[in-house]
Amino acid sequence: MNREGMVKIFGCIGAIVLAIAAPLALSSIYWTSVFTSIAINSLMAASLRTIFIIGEFSLGHVGFMCIGAYTSALLTMKAGLPFGLTLPAAGLLAGLVAFALGYPFMRVKGIYFVILTLVTSESFRLLIYNWKNFTGGYDGLIGFPGAGVLSIPGLGQVDFNGFTEYYYLTLAVVCVSLFILYRLEKSRLGFTWLAIQEADKMAGAVGVNVLRYKVIAFSIASFFAGLGGGLLAHFERALGPQATAFFGVMTTIYLLIYMVVGGKSKFVGPIMGAVVLSLISEFTRPVEEYQPMIIGAIAIAMVMLIPEGLVSIPEKIGKWLSRPLE
Amino acid sequence: MGFLEIRKLTRFFGGLAAVMELDMDVGQGQLFGLIGPNGAGKTTVLNMVGGTLRPSRGQIIFDGAEVTKLPPHRRAQRGIARVFQENLLFSSFTVLENVQVGYHLQSRIDLSSIFFETRSNRIQEKELEQKAMDTLEFVGLGQYTNEVAVNLPHGRQRLLALAIALAAQPQLLLLDEPVTGMAAEEVETMLSMVRALREQKGITCIIIEHNLKAVMGLCDRIAVLNFGRKIAEGPPEEIVENPAVMEAYLGKEEDVT
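ok -> C-alpha cells follow
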C-alpha cells in the first residue's frame, strides 16, 4: 500500500476513535449533543457534495432533510413504527421525491437548477408550516418518541433514548452512510459523475445517459439528507417553530460553506468543514448574534487565502517542509 | 438508400432558418465533407445528427432506423459518435481516463462493483484499461497516458478527442473541424488517421472543415451549404468547378468597367 493510502486509513481510524472517545472523555450531556449535531452536519455536507460531483449546486438540500425529519417523526407518532423502520423510510421518501423531481429539474443546469431547488425546498417548508392538522404547523410536533430500544446484533437490546447512546447510534449511521458515499464516489459510477461534471456534452456523445446519472446522484444525495433529517428529528424529539426556521435556506447555505471551507475537491473536505465550523459555532455561542458574521468572515477568508479548503493544508505544509533548502 | 439519410431537415432559431429542407445521403464507408462559409449551418446539421439539437422538421434515418428524436446517448449506442468543434475534453482527467470514459458503454456498473472489489470487476477494469491503451496507441498518444488532458497542446487534444469518440466504437463519426488550428504535419497525421479508420474499421465520417485543401484531398463526396441550404453536392473535383460554390465563397463577379 502506498503512503497516501496509509494516511487515509490511519486518518479514518483516528477520526473514528476520537469520535468514540470524545463523549466518554468529556462526559457532559452538552458536548455529547454538540457532537451528535456535528455528526449529522457532516452527513449533510458530505451528501451535498454528491450533487456537486455532477457539476450542480443545490440550495434546497435542507428541504430533503425536512422531508426525512417529518417522515420519521410522523411515522413514529401516528403509525407507532419503531425507529429502526422510520429512519430508512425517512431516507427512502426523501430519495423518492428527489427521483421524481430529478427528471424535470435536471433538464436545466447551473443557476436555473439552483433556483428550482431553492423554491422546492421552501415549498416543502411552507407546506409543513400550513398543513396544520397533519404536521402541527407552527406549533410543531412535540413529544414524539426517541430512538427507543433497538436490538443490535452482538449487543442485544440497547436503549437509545439516552444522549450518549443516541450519539453512538448517530455516529454509526453516519459512518456507514459516509462509507457508502465514499465507495460510490470511487466507483465507476462516481467516475461517470465526474465525467459529467467535466463535460456533459462529451459524456452524452459517448453514450452516457447524462440525465439518468444526474438523477441518480440527486436521489442518493437526497436519500442521505433524509436520513440526516430522521436522525435530527429523534435527537431533538420535537419539530417546532424553530424547526420550521431551521429548514430554511440559511441551513443549506451553511452546508455549502462547510463544503467550500473544508474543500470540495476531496471527499473528506465537507466533513472537515462541518466539524471545524460547527465547533467554531459552539465556541462563539456567547456572541450568538454575530455567529453568521463570524462564519461568513471565515468563509471569505478561506476562499481568498486557501481556495482549495482545509483539506489542502496538510499537503501545503508537506510541500513547505520538503522544499529545497537554500 | 444511404447509411445515413437526411430528409427535409430544417431547424429554425427564432425566425432564422439555420438549416432549410436539407436532403443528404451518406453511404457506408464514405468520407463525406460538409463545407460552406461561416454561418452556413454546418455545425447545426452535425448537432442534429449527433442529437444535441432537435430538428424543427425533417427526418434522420441511420442504418435503416429513424433516430430523429433520440437523445445523444441513445445515438451513441447505435454507433454515432462525435468530435466537437471546441476542444471539449474531460479536462482535469488524465489522457487514459478520458478514453476510459469513452468506453462507458462497455463498462458494467452494479452494486457489487461499487462495494466489493471482486475478481470479475478487476478483470473488467484491466480489460477496459487495455482497450483504452490500445486506442491511445492507435491515435499516437501512447506515451502521454498519465498527462492531464488540459496540459496537452492543441493538436494532441484534438487527437485525444478523436480517441474518446473511437472508444465508443462508432460506425459513423462526426468530425467538426478536426484539423483547424493544427500545424501542417499534424494535419497530415489527422488526415491519414481518418483514412485508416475507414480502411481498417470501415468507419463512415462526416467532416466539417474550413481547410479546403484538406477536405478536397480527403473526402469522396462533398456537400456545400450556404445560408442553411445545400447549393451543391458531388465529388471534390466537381465541387471546385461549381460556379455556385465559387460565388458562395468568393462573392459574385461583377463587371466594374
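Chain A touches chain B at residues 180, 183-184, 187-189, 191-192, 194-195, 198-199, 201-211 (CB under 8 Å).
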